[in-house]
Design a protein that fits this description.
The protein is mainly alpha-helical. Helix content is 51%, strand content 8%. The protein has one domain (2-68). A two-stranded antiparallel ribbon has the order 1-2.
Length: 71
């Protein structure tokens, strides 16, 4: 499953981590595979947590934040 870079950047900003958000914006590809735990881990993110936050569909069914974080 691919996760949009903008969602990751938004999440980092909402967590109060603007420096990591800028790094993610500069270093991540537009779409990040959720299985790339090493790349996501560099920013302190757990792939499973990101999946739960996806807007609509899977994210909402798993109790995620729905459209709050997605674009």
């Amino acid at each position: 499953m691919k996760i949009d870079r903008d969602m990751i950047v938004d999440l980092l900003q909402k967590r109060g981590q603007p420096d990591k958000a800028r790094e993610a914006q500069d270093q991540l590809p537009q779409q990040v595979d959720h299985e790339d735990a090493g790349l996501l881990g560099k920013f302190g993110l757990d792939p499973q947590d990101l999946i739960k936050m996806l807007p609509g569909g899977l994210g909402d069914k798993l109790g995620g934040l729905g459209g709050l974080l997605g674009k």
